[in-house]
Amino acid sequence: MKKCFVLLVAVLMLISSNLSAIINPIWMSNPQKQMWENECIFTPDDKYIIGTNVLGGGVTPVDSSKVYKVETGEIVNRTMPGLRRAHILDSNHVIGAWNNEIRVINLTTFQLERLFELDSFQMSNDYGEFDYSLDNSQMITHFYPSKINNLYGFRIWDIKTGKIIRTKFFPNDTNAYSFSVGWVGYLYNGNILAGLNRHYKIPDGKGGYKDIDYYSNIILDKNTLDSIGSTVIFSYISPDKDLLLWSSNTLLTIYDAKTMQVYKTLPMIEAPSDYCFSKDQRYLYLGFGGHKRIEIWDLITSSMLDYTSYVDANYSGLAISNNQKYFAAAYGIVFMYYNPIKGVVEPPKQDSLIFPNPANGNINLNFSTNNNLPTITSLNDLSGHLIKPLFNQLLDIGSHSLQFNVSDLSNGTYFITVQNGKDTQSFKLLINK
Fold first, then answer.
1. CA distance 401 to 374
2. Contacts 24+ apart (CB under 8 A), 158-161
3. Angle at CA 132, nearest 5°, toward 128 and 135?
4. Do both 29 and 152 map to the same domain?
5. Are 311 and 375 in a shared domain?
6. Is residue 104 part of a domain?
7. How many domains does the structure of the chain reveal?
8. Are residues 247 and 271 in contact, defined by beta-carbon separation less than 8 angstroms?
9. pLDDT digits (tens, 9 = 90+) for 349-404
10. How far is CA 120 from CA 8, 11, 100, 147, 181, in A?
11. Is residue 349 part of a domain?
């Protein structure tokens, strides 16, 4: 097992108008604590960050989480129940797994409020990786062989009620030496992706056998749960469920989930240990355990903007705050940074930066500016090519709302880019007619 570091570190980074090659830490918490958070998540108001999936001594799971103030790193709660694969449920609740339990934690008290439904098919060990539908109405996870029928499969819960609504079992492959379900997740249209792993022992012609592993990804119909096709091999799904990522030690390939065609390729120093997107999916944050660094890539220009580095860090467990002012990483060590992509912009009062989104007619674009300088707004396609200029005018510092008509656009994904001095913001727009 990879050695964990006997450290718990939290780091705040200052914004610079010019991005530097390496961002240096300005504070860290107690490095003597042998309690390592391997994941982290921001609360909806971005006041706190929760360190989850805690291991004691780097090995033994510990049924607790730690809650830190984002600005200072001060620990405000040490007794919150343990979580793994945590996800914000609503403005006052976070959900996650611990062993066989699906837990809902109240973010006011930081204590357990309720459990999701379980039944006699619960498996013998632990749930696998979790994913959530795009509309946040359903949660899905694969499970290991149950105590009853020894089959792999997955389960779906209704998030609002916590009730199990679907269970799918996969028949064993009798030709394979072993068969398992590696993960499950949602696509942009609600259909389900499942990764199937098969291990074969093939006669080598010399009286022995050679081992062959076969990995496949299939698409399941959201209504029938029947297989309706296959996909490329990938290891990560973007938050909007429309991009699929796969990386080797030298190349990261990003696929468009709607066409299964290559969207971008980026050179890698090694296979990333974790991925995280900005809210508009323009920027991609990559954590590297071996090289102990985080890289930030602009997917429109295919260029690396910045990277962080710390001598004893194994960067994974990446998270971005809801207002995009901060990003964080956790793997034994918890780091906190100011987001260096652009100057800090206060979020608008509206729930959405673009509303409605998806759209097919008039839209309202809500944004803030930090500089009393000309503001240039343009519409771009996924590759960053200019479709048309939208607005070019001097704006005062503060919040603004502009209205545009997009009825002439074809169905698809676009970016609206707002440039105010050196600050650039990109907002993802979906057209659905």
1. 15
2. 159/89, 159/95, 159/132
3. 170
4. yes
5. no
6. yes
7. 2
8. yes
9. 333 478 888 888 889 888 888 888 888 898 888 767 788 889 888 888 888 888 88
10. 39, 44, 12, 8, 20
11. no
> pLDDT tens-digit profile of 198-226?
888 888 888 888 888 888 899 999 999 99
Q: 3-class secondary structure for 290-333?
A: CCCEEEEEECCCCEEEEEEECCCCCCCCCEECCCCCEEEEECCC
Residue 179 structural domain = 22-338
DSSP string for 176-207: SSEEEEEEEEE-TTS-EEEEEEEEEEEE-SSS
Read off the tokens for 58: 């780097």
Q: Within 13 A of 390's CA, how many CA atoms are on the CB side?
A: 21
CATH number of the domain encompassing residue 101: 2.130.10.10
388 falls within a domain? yes
The percent of the chain in helix, strand and coil, each rounded to the nearest 5, is 0, 55, 45
| 101 domain residue, yes or no | yes
Do 70 and 326 meet the contact criterion of CB atoms below 8 Å apart? yes
Full 3-state SS string of the chain: CCCCCCCCCCCCCCCCCCCCCEECCCCCCCCCCCEEEEEEEECCCCCEEEEEEEEECCCEECCCEEEEECCCCCEEEEEECCCEEEEEEECCEEEEEECCEEEEEECCCCEEEEECCCCCCCECCCEEEEEECCCCCEEEEEECCECCCCCEEEEEEECCCCCEEEEEEECCCCCCCEEEEEEEEECCCCCEEEEEEEEEEEECCCCCEEEEEEEEEEEECCCCCCEEEEECCCCEECCCCCEEEEECCCEEEEEECCCCEEEEEEECCCCCCEEEECCCCCEEEEEECCCCEEEEEECCCCEEEEEEECCCCCCCCCEECCCCCEEEEECCCEEEEECCCCCCCCCCCCCCCEECCCECCEEEEEEEECCCCEEEEEEECCCCCEEEEEEEEECCCEEEEEEEECCCCCCEEEEEEEEECCEEEEEEEEECC
Same domain, 413 and 269: no
Average pLDDT over residues 100-115: 92
Do 156 and 257 share a domain, yes or no? Answer: yes
Q: What is the pLDDT of residues 37-58, one digit of tens each?
A: 778 899 999 999 998 877 765 5
The CA-based angle 15-17-19, given to 5 degrees, is 80
